[in-house]
Every structure is written in C-alpha cells, then in structure tokens.
Design goal:
The complex is a heterotrimer.
Chain A: E1 2-3, E2 6-9, H1 13-24, E3 29-32, E4 48-49, H2 60-76, E5 86-90, H3 96-109, E6 114-117, H4 118-124, E7 134-138, E8 141-142, H5 145-158, E9 162-164, E10 167-175, E11 178-186, E12 192-196, E13 199-202, H6 208-214, E14 221-231, E15 239-242, E16 251-255, E17 258-262, E18 266-268, H7 278-291, E19 300-311, E20 325-329, E21 334-339, H8 345-360, H9 384-387, E22 394-396, E23 401-402, H10 403-413, H11 418-425, H12 437-447, H13 453-471, H14 477-493
Parallel strand pairs in A: 1-12, 2-3, 2-13, 3-9, 5-15, 13-21
Antiparallel strand pairs in A: 4-8, 5-7, 6-7, 10-11, 11-12, 14-17, 14-18, 14-19, 15-16, 16-17, 20-21, 22-23
Helix pairs in contact in A: 1-5, 1-8, 12-13
Chain B: E1 2-5, E2 8-11, H1 15-26, E3 31-34, H2 57-62, H3 75-91, E4 96-97, E5 104-107, E6 113-116, E7 119-120, E8 134-139, H4 147-151, E9 157-162, H5 169-176, H6 179-191, E10 198-202, H7 210-221, E11 225-228, H8 235-250, E12 254-256, E13 261-267, E14 270-277, E15 282-286, E16 289-292, E17 302-304, E18 309-311, E19 360-362, H9 372-375, H10 379-397
Parallel strand pairs in B: 1-15, 2-3, 2-16, 3-12, 8-9, 8-10, 10-11, 16-19
Antiparallel strand pairs in B: 4-7, 5-6, 13-14, 14-15, 17-18
Helix pairs in contact in B: 1-8, 1-10, 3-10, 6-7
Chain C: H1 11-15, H2 17-21, H3 27-36, H4 58-62, H5 69-83, H6 88-94, H7 96-105, H8 107-115, H9 117-125, E1 154-159, H10 161-167, H11 169-181, E2 184-187, H12 196-200, H13 204-223, E3 227-230, H14 233-242, H15 252-257, E4 259-261, H16 262-271, E5 285-289, H17 292-297, H18 302-307, E6 314-318, H19 336-352, E7 357-359, H20 363-373, E8 377-378, H21 380-388
Parallel strand pairs in C: 1-2, 1-3, 3-4, 5-6, 5-7, 7-8
Classes of the chains: A alpha/beta, B alpha/beta, C alpha/beta.
Chain lengths: ~500, ~400, ~400
C-alpha cells in the first residue's frame, strides 16, 4: 500500500499541472492515469496557447485569463513553446461588426493586436487565401500537448512525486464518509495497487463524472466531441483563426513539422466510444481551405476525435458554455476540477493547489509561474538545425527520432508501449504514421531484453489497431498509397496474422 | 513530338508488366515497357505468393470467390507461367525453390511464418517451426533487423553481431559482393563455433551474387543457411526485379524509365499511342496493343480521391465496392476491408469491362476482386495473369 | 510540394550509389523529403552532409511517386552554398571554365605539372583527389575550329561543352565530320560553360550568368532555324532541366524544346529515313556504360540504338551502376573514397561481361572507368566514325 498526501486522478494537462505545483510546494503526491499522459482532451487538442482572442468577444474573463497565461507560458516554457503569433483573417462576407467588437474587446482586455493589410498578411503567411480582406495579428503560440504534460511531470519526478500510467482507478476507498484512497488496476500486470492519501483530486476530464460516482458524488458534464485533421507539412508558420464567432473548422495551428486543423463540436455520451465521421473531415478541410486554399489538395495524415468535458449547462450549443473552470468540493476529501482549456491549465492547477493548501492550513506560495519548466533541454527541436546534430542512427525517419532518444525513454519509463514512446518523442507521428519505426522501436526493446514474445506481438497488434483509428478516415490520395505500403509491410513481409 | 513505334507497349515495370513484356518479346514482337519509376516488387520479400488459403495453392485458387480473376486463368497457364518464371530466374542466376503442388513457410523478421509458394533459393532452408535450432547473425548498426524478435520465440536460438563497416541493408549487401569482405566474414563466422543446425541472416547476402555467397558460406560452415526478408529496402525484392528486368532486356525489350504516361491517343476502338514527357518534348509511343500493369495503390495504378477511385492512364472504369464507408473496417486486422476489391474488372480475354477499346489488356495487382492480402495472392497472381493477358494480346495482334 | 507525394517506400534509397558506400550520407529519402518537412527556410543551414549527394538523379528515375529527391537536395545544397564559405576545391571546380581556359593556353606546362608529384601534392592540399589522372588540357580547343560553310537543308548549332572543348577536341571534330557527312551544316555558336560545375559547387550566381549568356546565344540560332545539338549528357541535363528549374532563366523553355542529344538527333534522322548511313563492319565486343545523366534525360539510350545498327558489333548495355565520378564530385577529396568504391564496382560489372573496351557518352564516366580499369573508353561517335570510315582530321 502506498501512502501519500494528495492523490491526483487524471494525467491530462490539469492533472500534470497540479502535480508540478504540488511538487514545487513540497507536497508529496501520486498521479494515476488510466492510459498514457494526455490520453483525453489534452492529447486531442490543437496545442494552441491562446492569446485570448478567441474568447475576446464571447467571454472576456476567459480571454484575460488566456492572455495572462499565454505570457506566463512563453516565459516558463521558452524552449518548448513556439511563439508563432496568430492571425485572425477576415474573408469577404465576414461580419465587420464582429470585427469591431473583436478589436474593442481585445483592447479592453489588454490583448495586443495589430491590423494587417492583406498584402502584409500574405507576406507573413504566403499560403493564405489571397482574397482575404485583412488580418489581425495576435500573440498566439503553439505547443505539443504531450510534451507539456511530460515537462510538468518532470518537475514532479525530480521532487519525488509518484505517477502510475496505465492504471485504472476501480474503487475509491472510503472510511467514515471520507475518501481516503483509491484502488487502481495495473493494466500491464493485472495487479491491484492501493494508494492512500489525505486528499483526492479528480482531474479526469471527460471521465470526471464516472470517477465522482465511485465516491458517490455527481459532476454533471456535457461531453462534446471535437475532431482534428493533421496535415503532412506546415502550411503556415502562424496560427490562423477566422475572424467570426467561433464555429467549426476555423483554427489552423502549426506544430513542428505538421499543421493541425479543426475543430467540430458534437454532443456525445460515452467518452470511450468516439470516432470521427467523414462529414467532420469534409467540414474541417472545407473551412480550413477557405483560409488556406492549399488545404483542399494537401496531404492529410491523420484525422481523429477527442472529447471536451464541459460543465453542464442548459445552453444547447456546447460552444457557448463558458470555458471557465470550476473546483467542486465534494465535502468528503475529494475535489473535482472541471472545465477549462489547455491554455489555462497552470492557473487551474494553481487554484486547485491553493484550495488544497487552505484545506491543510499551509501557507506556501505558488511558484509555477516563475520557475521555468524542467526538462526542456532534453527536447528535440524544430526546425532541422535544432533537431539533430547529424542524421545517424535514426529510428523514426519521418520525424527524425534517434535510437539514443528512444532507448532513453524506454529506460526512463520502463514502457512496453510504442505509443508511450510516440508521445514523448514524436516517433510515428509523421507521414508513415509509424509504418517503419514501430517495428524498429519494438526491435530496440528486444535489444534491451525487456520484451517477451507475447508482449511483442501484443504490443505490435495493439499499436497498429490504435493507430488505425486515427488514420482510417484520412485515407485517400498519397496517404492511402502510404497505408497500403504499411499494410504490405506488416501483413505481407512481417506476416502478422489477420483475423480468421 | 517524337514518335516511336512498337508492337506492344507495356505500362508498368512490375512483376506483371515484365512477365507479359518478356513473353511477348520472346514471341518475336517488338515490345517496350514504359514506367514512372521502379515497382512495388523492389520492396517485396521476393517470394512468389500464389494463394495462401490452402496448403495446396491450386486448391486454394479453386475455392476463391467466383469473381476472382484467378479463375480467368487456366490451371495449365498457371503451371506454365510459374515454370517459365522458375526457369527465367535460374537462367539469371537467382533460382527459386518450391512448386505449385504445395505451399511452404518462411521465417519472417518478427519470428512469425509467412506462407508462400516459391521462394528464392537463399530462403530454401528457412525453418518450418519454432523448435529448430538456429543461430542468427546480425550486423552492427543495422536498424532494420532485430534478432530479438525471433530469439524471443525460438527456444533454441542465439545470435552474434558482425561489424560490416556500414550500417545499412544496401551497404552490407554491396560489401558481400566483394571477395575480400566475404572471406574475412567467413573466417570470423568459423571462429564463432556455432553449434546450431542452421544459420540465419537478414537478407543482405549480396546484390546479384546472393546465390553464390550463400553456397560459399554453406560449404565452409558445413550447414544450411537462409535469409530472412527485411522491411524495405529489400534485397530479395531488388534481386527479383533485376532478374526479370535483365531477362526482358535480353529478350530484346526496351525500357523507358521515368516516363509517366501523360496522355493517350485513340481512334475509334483502337488506342494508337501513349504520350509521355521527357525533359524537353512529349514523346508518342505508338503500338498495336497495350498492356496495363500499373499495380494497385502503392504501385500507382489506382488513385483514390476523397470518395472515388480512378485509374489515371486510360481513365478506365474502376470497380469500387461502395462509398468511402465500406472501404475500411474499423478493425485493422479485418479480412473484409472493401478496398481490397477495388480495381479494373476484366472479361475472359483480360480486356477491361465497360471499356471502348479493343487493344488494351490488363493484368496484375490492378485487377478488381483480388483482395491480395486476404487471399495471399501476390507475385504468383501477377505472373499468372500477365501470362494469360499476354496470350490474349498476342492473339489480338495475329 | 513534390515531397508531399513521398510514401517512404525507400526505392530511392535502394538506388542511391552514394548511400550504399558512404555512411555519412543519409540517403535521398532522408536528405530529401524527410528533412524537407523540417526545413523552414529561415534558419541557417547546418546540413553539411547534403553536399555528399552527387546529383546522379538515380533516385528520381526510380521514384514511383514523382518526388524528385535530387531536386529537393539540390536546393538544400544551393542554400548551404550561399551560407557557408566554399572550400578551395569547390571554388576551383565552380570556375572550371575559366581555369580550363587558362589551362589550355598553358597546356603543355599545365599538363606536365598536373602529373608531377608536387602537382598532385598541391592538388591534395587543396582538397582535390588524385586517384585518377587529371584530364589533359588541349592547346587547340574546339572553339577555334575553322570549317567550311555549306548550304545544307539541315543546320545544327553544336553545343560541345567544356570537356570536349578543353580536353578532347578531337572527339568534337569527329562529331562535326560525322554530321557533315550526313549533309548537315554544323555551326559552333558562341557558348560558355553550361553552368553545371558552378551549380554543383555552390555557386548558383555564376551558373546563372553562364546560363543567361548561353540562352541568349542559342536562342538566336534557334530563331534562325538551327537545331541545337549537345553531346555531353550533363550539359544536356543542365540545359533542358536546370535552366528552366533552379536557375529560372526566361526563354529556357525554348532552348529545351529545340535541343537534342547528338545521338537522339542522328537516330531521329535514321528512323525518319532522312539519312541512310552505310555502316561497315566493326568487330568489337563493347560494354556500353550508360551515364546516370543520360538516364535522367529521359530520352532512352539513343546511342545504343544507333550503334546496334553496326554489323559485327557486340554491345552489352550496363545501366545499373553509377561510375562514381559525377563530374567534379569524385575529384573532391572528401568524396574520393565514395568515387573509388563506386568506380570499382562499375568496373567489375564491366569486366564480368568480357568486353574488350568501354563505350559511354559522358567524358567523366570514360575518365573514371578507364582510369580505374586500364581499359580503353570510347565516345559512341568514335565507334560510329570507325564504322563510317570518318577520320578526325580534314
């Protein structure tokens, strides 16, 4: 049985942010996540660190929070946040009234804007639709959300915090009406772990209600599916937004060598059963194509969905629900923290940990906004000159990930899952989507003598199955050609078994 | 525009195209082959899959669904085509073992077994079960091969590592062509005191001299050795392609590399020519008949748009089993992905159905209803249909 | 955005001769489409390994998706060349035209010097490889050739290239005699280096300046009804491909449409029955080494088709191996090991055919293969002239 002070359920940006904050304030903690880090909404979002512009008109409080956090993230994440800047483009027919409101709201909030003529905008982003009327520049940034979680957990690790991934919480242990711990199932071994603590933080995103129920509580959520399409190359170096009230498909974010475009918004019931629909892919490409025409013909390498957990509201269109967050004290030693967005994760974590400090009657100030994120030096960079010293010994050739890097991750995490390596190195996230490097990554594990035959086959099958979910709806043109080749490799050359 | 005339033009340089082209050349016709680039065969295991559904490949073929184009080829033609193939490859110095009577297994790079019909002789002694005693040799830095996969499944296997000076499949294979290197390697191998019955290698035992390299090692080490096919770059695939290509040339065939077909000229029910661009000017390749062997999606024969599938050379009607929803199952390992059925449907003379021309014939992976991975019909299917289509083509010309 | 089409099949890698022998070069896929996704055009280029690509274009001929990796790498090379100081060897070869002019004026001295121990030592110090002898300068270049004008129906402006001009004007003379024997009027237009040595050694500006001058000159002749004929396959590739491509010369399209490889031209005349050469027997067993740039021209192997008509000639075509020299590439010491290894393999394949001599359209290939094997290497025109009984002298 493991004893700690704070138990965090959920390894998304919020959970990881809380772990970091607790670590810096010297509070022992243990994070439990049923998949890998960023398995929920965090891993399925654009990776956009808002300037706040997107909420300027609809939710000024949220917008201000975003802007402040954006500035903080740039400072503490200097090496991992890409200060791309963003443009809000106005196409012919877009409301000028909205434009006025947008500019006014940004000014009121204090978000710096710069109005650019279409000529100037096209100079900055040559791929823009030449018909745009104008663009408004804002300080958007982009970050890889997996990395964000990793870096936060690094601090936790350095200060002795515990974390268990691939552990599903099956029970919340209660004593005299108080939550005193959790029982979690280790997916790798089938063993059960019991962890006791003084406070439980339920930061499980779309699963918040399911976890809350384990403690006999309710957190009514609206689950909203959002989908993303990923392109093979960077069509833009700046974040591109549409200057109109938030709607489907109006964001394009560059991230390392790709672009993420989205999103959509459809109500769903079960966070574990979501898949993207072809119509969503069409919508996203269509809308993105209006801002960057190249989108209509560009190669798409992945299309998938994630679930946004939003506080339940009577409003019908889930986009209208505030992206603000809420901390719910269940009065039994458990707190749930719900809502929010990637950009404000640090603030959410700060408020949550402040609440915990009060509960413990401790006075320790939050340092997460001052201290730079740990572990940034270990990250591989973009573009090429920052990524690799030479091109030797590369395991993932699409994303230029070296063998040394893969070995280091395997040693650090003890993982048998290629997906875990993917999240931490971007292995398999390029055009071939793990076609070649999956074989190599598992091969490296064999070289390190950590895999049995069963684990090897299972790992390969599992990875290929999961991978397929993200590419099945992006298969046409060059990508279908690519996929048939990968199929020949695994099912032909490597003779993996098909189902009988 | 330059105009070049032939009797037959084959579009596509894969196993099907080269087989059809060589056979027609051998019948005395002037044949040219035109291709965008090199074919999928270069990436394959080099093995000839005929039909993996049954121990007996011909039985397997007999039980294929009714629309499967294998049924358009008589058993006699299948026999003849595969025998011819084996003869050709023996002539080119890369013989193949096996026969149409029975399928065989070869060991794959992840320790599973692949069912196939004919294998290059370098894979002749590949183990048939996991209890065989094998010793695996790998090479320093070779990132496309990991003995660990196989060791974890074979209780009686061990491995050693040799430093070949270069870490790539191609580089090591090129080194094996050098006598000095081979001799030094064999001396090292002898010193390893290998106890197991067979020695396994990733498929890097030379570019074109693999057979003699294999024989030499077997002779010195006094036991069978075998190659294991690697992920691309694939040497056995390359050797297969080179063998068929050189044979085609020896028969008098001409190959135009890097000539994607950009246009077609037709009159009435005849295709007159295909137009291809070289660096400055378009070229018209005229012929009396045309054979389309451009492959499936990887090969470039079929191209998918968001919701339709096209054939880009002649714009032939493509059979598609339905809309985008049926192209793929949700399960990656499903045998029912609809996309396997797509392709050009042909009649009994291998002419495309619903096509307005008389002098075009289609063979190989581009054919509809093939479901290559499900049925395990790969190069063997290409060879057989190429032979049959070539025969129909010859009949048309005469 | 051609790199978008790459499906990572590695067929280009299977074909790259440099990748096979030099572990420092990551291969056309990694140097081309893989790295391209990470090049944003704003950071200084740190990819020195990009210079190891010899631009043989074999990757492009093999790619089933139309990616053109060599072109992607060429631009990366250009970028690197703009941002980094050039080595002595690069400077020398980029300015080959000027240096060869000097070399030919001082030919006897220059040739003797190049063959001495001190000369070779100095070359090696400058980063130049000396594993095969430097080509000998000819005092009498082709440029100064005077010949009689005639009034024939067909007129050809002969773009002879630096190799023939400075090293083997005798081959140039044979070509002129041969064309004249076909009743073709041959003119030597004002011309400069095609620009490929400059382009391949990091000096795009110099390449462009040569290109502009050549285009202006040849354009005049095309307008006056001349067909442009080139014989060096690398010059041809530069004229037909790079002028319109990376060098972006206006009017380059006109040049491309009206320029022909010598043998492509002769073959056309033969197949259209405009000429009926009387080929006499030549009893030789030859190995025809196809230059990489001939493949890249996408015109087939016209010289092979022409010499196929010569009775008694046995000719085996070998197009699987790159000779390794690639113009000035192999002459740079950093590439010496690569060039030697590739050359040796090409030679061994030739020797396996049992041929007595080598024939190749490209002077660079001939130098390499002859230098490494000791066998004679001929330009196809030499065999053709032998068959037609044409001598080089008047």
């Amino acid at each position: 049985m493991i004893k700690t002070d704070v138990i965090i359920i959920g390894g998304g940006a919020t959970g990881c942010g809380i772990a970091r904050d607790l670590a810096l304030r010297g509070i022992p903690h243990c994070l439990i996540e049923k998949g890998d880090f960023a398995a929920g909404a965090t891993g399925a979002c654009h990776g956009l660190l808002h300037s706040g512009g997107r909420y300027a008109v609809s939710d000024q409080v949220a917008a201000k929070e975003c802007y402040d956090e954006n500035m903080i993230m740039r400072r503490i994440g200097e090496k991992c946040v890409e200060p791309t800047g963003g443009l809000f483009v106005r196409l012919p027919g877009d409301s000028k009234i909205f434009r006025e409101r947008f500019l006014r709201s940004c000014e009121e909030i204090g978000i710096p804007t710069e109005i650019l003529s279409s000529t100037k905008a096209l100079e900055l982003v040559p791929n823009l639709n030449p018909d745009i009327e104008e663009a408004i520049k804002v300080p958007d940034c982009s970050i890889d959300p997996f990395r964000l979680c990793m870096l936060n957990m690094r601090t936790s690790e350095l200060k002795g915090g515990l974390s268990f991934t691939r552990h599903k919480v099956t029970e919340i242990v209660q004593s005299h009406g108080r939550c005193i711990g959790v029982k979690a199932l280790d997916a790798a071994t089938g063993d059960e772990k019991e962890i006791h603590g003084n406070i439980i933080v339920n930061a499980s995103g779309a699963w918040t209600n399911l976890i809350a129920k384990l403690a006999g509580c309710e957190v009514p959520l609206t689950l909203s599916k959002g989908s993303l399409v990923i392109t093979n190359h960077r069509l833009t170096d700046m974040v591109i937004n549409r200057l109109r009230p938030s709607s489907d498909g109006d964001i394009i974010v560059p991230n390392e060598a790709v672009c993420l475009a989205g999103t959509t918004s459809l109500a769903v019931e079960d966070p574990d059963k979501i898949t993207i629909q072809p119509a969503e892919v069409d919508t996203i490409i269509g809308e993105a194509g209006r801002m960057i025409p190249h989108f209509n013909n560009t190669r798409v390498i992945r299309a998938f969905s994630g679930v946004r957990p939003l506080l339940k509201s009577q409003k019908l269109d889930s986009r209208e629900i505030s992206r603000g967050f809420q901390i719910i004290d269940h009065q039994n030693g458990m707190y749930s923290i719900v809502g929010g967005k990637l950009t404000t994760f640090r603030l959410m974590a700060e408020k949550m940990v402040d609440t915990i400090m009060n509960a413990f009657n401790l006075k320790r100030a939050c340092e997460t906004a001052e201290k730079p994120l740990d572990g940034q030096e270990e990250l591989s960079g973009y573009p090429l000159s920052k990524r690799l010293a030479d091109m030797k010994d590369i395991v993932c050739e699409c994303e230029l990930v070296t063998r040394k890097h893969v070995e280091r991750i395997i040693a650090q995490t003890g993982t048998r899952h290629v997906g875990d390596i993917s999240h931490r190195t971007r292995l398999g996230m390029g055009p071939c989507q793990g076609g070649f490097c999956t074989f190599r990554a598992l091969g490296v594990m064999h070289d390190m003598n950590i895999l049995t035959a069963e684990q090897s086959v299972q790992s390969l099958r599992e990875f290929l199955q999961r991978r397929f979910r993200g590419i099945r709806y992006a298969l046409w043109g060059d990508q279908l050609r690519e996929e048939q080749l990968v199929e020949y490799i695994y099912l032909g050359i490597l003779a993996m078994e098909k189902n009988k | 525009m330059s105009v070049i005339e032939y009797d037959v033009i084959v579009i596509g340089a894969g196993v099907a195209g080269l087989t059809a082209g060589s056979w027609l050349s051998g019948q005395g016709l002037k044949v040219a082959l035109v291709t965008t680039g090199e074919p999928t065969a270069c990436l394959s295991t080099g093995c000839i899959d005929v039909c993996a559904q049954n121990e007996d490949p011909l039985q397997g073929i007999a039980h294929l669904p009714a629309e499967h184009p294998f049924h358009l080829v008589s058993n006699a033609t299948i026999h003849q085509a595969l025998n011819d193939f084996q003869q050709i490859m023996t002539d080119m110095g890369m013989s193949y073992t096996g026969g149409l009577g029975k399928n065989r297994r070869i060991l794959s790079a992840i320790g599973t077994f692949k069912t196939t019909c004919l294998t290059p002789s370098t894979m002749q002694t590949s183990p048939q079960n996991e209890n065989e005693k094998i010793h695996i040799i790998t090479f320093t830095g070779l990132k496309d091969f990991y003995p660990g996969y196989i060791i974890s499944r074979f209780p009686n296997a061990s491995f050693s590592i040799y430093n070949a000076g270069v870490p790539t499949t191609m580089g090591i294979a090129a080194n094996f062509e050098d006598d000095t290197f081979l001799e030094a390697f064999i001396l090292w191998l002898e010193k390893q005191n290998i106890r197991e019955d067979k020695i396994a290698f990733p498929a890097v035992l030379g570019l074109e001299s693999a057979m003699s390299v294999k024989e030499r090692i077997e002779h010195r080490l006094e036991r069978p050795i075998f190659e294991i096919p690697t992920i691309p770059p694939s040497m056995p695939g390359r050797r297969l392609f080179n063998g068929l290509k050189d044979h085609f040339r020896r028969k008098g065939g001409v190959i135009y590399w890097g000539w994607p077909v950009a246009g077609v000229e037709k009159t009435g029910r005849q295709i007159e020519a295909v137009i291809a661009e070289s660096r400055g000017r378009p070229n018209s390749l005229n012929a009396r008949a045309f054979i389309l062997a451009t492959g499936s999606f990887v090969g470039g024969g079929l191209w998918a748009k968001r919701d339709t599938i096209m054939e880009k050379v002649f714009n032939l009607p493509v059979f598609v089993p339905g809309g985008q929803e049926v192209w793929f199952d949700q399960d990656y390992f499903s045998v029912n992905h609809g996309i396997g059925e797509t392709g050009i449907a042909v009649d009994s003379s291998f002419r495309p159905k619903g096509c307005p021309w008389d002098n075009i014939f289609v063979c190989g992976a581009i054919l509809a209803h093939t479901e290559a991975l499900k049925n395990g019909c790969g190069h063997g299917f290409a060879i057989a249909t190429a032979q049959a289509a070539a025969q129909c083509c010859l009949e048309h010309i005469r | 955005m051609k790199y978008e089409h790459c499906i990572r099949c590695t067929i280009c890698v299977e074909n790259c001769p440099v990748f096979r022998v030099n572990p420092e070069f990551p291969g056309p896929k990694q140097a081309g489409p893989d790295a391209q996704r990470f090049r944003n055009g704003r950071e200084k280029s740190a990819e020195e390994w990009v210079l190891l690509c010899s631009q043989c274009k074999r990757c492009e001929m093999a790619c089933p998706c139309g990616v053109e990796p060599a072109q992607i790498i060429l631009r990366a090379q250009q970028r690197y060349g703009l941002e980094h100081p050039h080595t002595a060897a690069h400077l020398l070869f980029a300015n080959n035209y000027y240096l060869s002019t000097l070399g030919s004026i001082t030919a006897p001295l220059a040739n003797r010097f190049a063959a001495t121990k001190i000369g070779k030592k100095i070359f090696r110090r400058m980063g130049i490889a000396t594993y095969i002898p430097f080509p000998k300068f000819s005092f009498k270049t082709l440029r100064g050739e005077k010949k009689a004008r005639s009034r024939e129906a067909r007129k050809v402006a002969f773009f002879y290239g630096c190799f023939i001009n400075f090293y083997r004007p005798d081959i140039g003379r044979k070509i002129i005699r041969m064309l004249q024997s076909f009743k073709i009027d041959v003119v030597l237009p004002p011309q400069w280096c095609c620009g490929l040595p400059a382009l391949g050694n990091g000096n795009t500006a110099l390449a462009r300046s040569f290109a502009r001058k050549n285009v202006a000159s040849l354009s005049n002749y095309i307008d006056a009804g001349y067909d442009v004929v080139y014989t060096c396959t690398s010059c041809g590739l530069c004229l037909l491909h790079d002028y319109q491509g990376i060098l972006e010369i206006p009017e380059a399209k006109k040049i491309a449409e009206n320029s022909f490889d010598l043998y492509e031209y002769v073959l056309k005349l033969i197949t259209e029955r405009e000429i009926k050469p009387n080929f006499r027997e030549v009893n030789r067993v030859l190995a025809y080494h196809i230059p990489c740039h001939l493949r890249a021209l996408k015109i087939g192997y016209p010289a092979a088709d022409v010499i196929k008509l010569i009775p008694g000639l046995q000719c085996r075509i070998l197009d699987d191996a790159c000779c390794g020299l690639n113009g000035s590439y192999g002459f740079k010491k950093i590439n010496e090991a690569t060039a030697v290894q590739l050359g040796r393999r090409a030679v061994s394949l030739i020797q396996k055919t049992g041929a007595e001599a080598i024939v190749a359209d490209c002077g660079s290939c001939r130098m390499q293969l002859s230098g490494l094997s000791g066998m004679d290497a001929f330009d196809p025109v030499e065999i053709i002239c032998e068959s037609l009984g044409i001598k080089g002298k008047k």
